[in-house]
Structures are given as structure tokens and as C-alpha cells.
UniProtKB/TrEMBL annotation:
<dbReference type="InterPro" id="IPR045545">
    <property type="entry name" value="PHYIP/PHIPL_C"/>
</dbReference>
<keyword id="KW-0325">Glycoprotein</keyword>
<dbReference type="GO" id="GO:0005737">
    <property type="term" value="C:cytoplasm"/>
</dbReference>
<dbReference type="InterPro" id="IPR003961">
    <property type="entry name" value="FN3_dom"/>
</dbReference>
<comment type="similarity">
    <text>Belongs to the PHYHIP family.</text>
</comment>
<dbReference type="InterPro" id="IPR042868">
    <property type="entry name" value="PHYHIP/PHYHIPL"/>
</dbReference>
<dbReference type="InterPro" id="IPR013783">
    <property type="entry name" value="Ig-like_fold"/>
</dbReference>
<protein>
    <recommendedName>
        <fullName>Phytanoyl-CoA hydroxylase-interacting protein</fullName>
    </recommendedName>
</protein>
<comment type="subunit">
    <text>Interacts with PHYH and ADGRB1.</text>
</comment>
<feature type="domain" description="Fibronectin type-III">
    <location>
        <begin position="7"/>
        <end position="116"/>
    </location>
</feature>
<comment type="function">
    <text>Its interaction with PHYH suggests a role in the development of the central system.</text>
</comment>
<dbReference type="Pfam" id="PF19281">
    <property type="entry name" value="PHYHIP_C"/>
</dbReference>
<dbReference type="InterPro" id="IPR036116">
    <property type="entry name" value="FN3_sf"/>
</dbReference>
Amino acid sequence: METALSTPNNIQICEVTCDSFRIAWDMTPEDTARATHFFIDLSRKEGGDPNRFKHRDVPTKLVAKAVPLPMAVRGHWFLSPRTEYCVAVQTAVRQADGEYLVSEWSQVVEFCTGDYAMDHLKQLLGKALGSAGRLLRFSVFYRNQHPDYFHYVRTECGGLMRPALKDNSGSHGSPINSKLHGVFLSCNTEFDTGLPPNDSPYGPLRFQIPAGNLLNTNTNLYFADFYCMYTAYHYVVLVLAPAGSEGDNFCRSSLPLLDLTANPFLTYIPPQRQGEDPLFCHASDVILEVLYTEPLYLEQGSVLEISGHHQMSQTTANAKKDPSCKVCNISVGR
């Protein structure tokens, strides 16, 4: 009868990305020479059962031939970005009758996957390009809110709309989620009027600021996300950051930079002749969410009441994208 395998110990996780990681552990030299297979049990941390690794003789989620450690584990079908996982391993020897001699399960180790890398964001950008539609002119950025919001800004913040931390809505792997501060603005207009829509689910007051105050040659534009929430329409999240600012420094290493004068989402076209004004255009077939990374004073623009229906919609805070949508998902974790 073969000698039992020792329990793997000192589990080490390294080179973690949004949809892969490497795993290693300590084995005796004898077990290293004998092992033919590794069994890896991987599960999300939330709601985990500490006794889930109880079937010592049954391979669970991943079965791999023994390879030199650390071993790469990758696959978007079971790994998602920014997600906490629990992992445990067994070593095994396949015997002549096809059965496995297995070790006890190792201790359970926890780790968290990473954000989308630049290559993943460029894949997502490629998806978004096909949904942007034609460009329409616009003249103002705006932010719709309830009167209580503007009262608070005036009385408690000295008229300053301070950048707030981006929530976790949209693609789970977007690098700006819970990391980048900004003030969300809109710029979409109505087809027939060229003006912002009168209806708003956020409130009957609108702060608006001339587009050229924020979108100009002194600012950089970045692509941050493309998603939907089980609806026919899609959202594109852009970041507008003054060149050299803290927000710009963050985005430069994390997000694809867009050409201000030639991209399908939001453009600045400088004057062609003396005395002309620049032109500003937005994509017509997606809803643009523009995150401006700096504080904005109300006095930089104007606050006005808008007509129309203003029924508050269900909050989109931390709302996740539809993982089944073929238009806005890429071949990595959602």
C-alpha cells in the first residue's frame, strides 16, 4: 500500500490579475516526485461554509496535471475582477486502477482579484465604439439634482460641489470604482432641440456650465467603462481631468487616453477661423456619464429650474452591469 501524501502547506498566491493568479505551496521532496495531479477548490468568499472542503477523495472544481509551482490558474468563466475568493488544494497520485490517492485538503487561503488591466479596458473600448452612434453638438455640461442638494452645497460647502468617490456601479473591474473622486456631469441632448432634456429622474434643478470651461486643450479625456443594466440603452463613463492634476495622474496609468478632437464619444473641435467658437459634440446613441475630477463652484455656471417630470428612479448606486449582454461584456470577468 502506498504511503499517504502529506498535507500541502504554506499556500502562496501571487501575480493576481482580474481573471488569473498563480498558486504555490510546500510539499516534501517525496511528494513532489510522486504527485501526478493537483486538485484546487475555488469559491467566492461571501457566504462561505468553513466545512466546504470535506470530500477529501472527490476532485472539486479544478483538476490539473502536476506541474512545477507556482501554477497558473486562469479563466473568465469562474474568476471575476475585484472579488474575494477562498482556495484550498490537494495533491494526488493517480494509480494504475484509475483511482486517486489524495492528500488532506490544505488550509483555506483568501485573496482578491484585481481591476481590469489596460488591455481589458481597450477591449471594452472596442465594444463601445460600435454603439456610440453619430455625434451631436452640445454647449453645456449639466448636473440635475434635488433642491436639498444645492441648498447643502450653498450652506455647508461654500457653494463648492466637491468631488465624491466613484461608487461600484457599472463594470466590476473598472479601475475608477471606489478609487477615483469626481463630480458626475451629463451632456446628452435631445435630438429635436439640441438642448438637455427637460425631464430628470434626479430632481427639478439643474446646474449647467459652458462646455468650454471644462472641455478644452488643458484637459485630458479618458475612457473608463461601458455597461448596461438590463436595458436596451448603454452607458459610457468618461473621465475629464485637467492636465497634471491628481486625477489626471491616476488616469494616465489606469485608463485609455482619448483624442479630444477625434473620438466617437465626446469631442472638442478648436476654432477654424479667427472669431469662431470651438465646437463640442457628444455621442448620440449612448448615455454619457462624465466624471470631472476637480471641484466646481456653483458660480462657475448657473442653477435653474427645469420643467418636465422628475419622478425619482430606483437608485443606480453600486448597480452592476448585465453579465449576459453580448454588446458590453468582454472575455474576462464581469
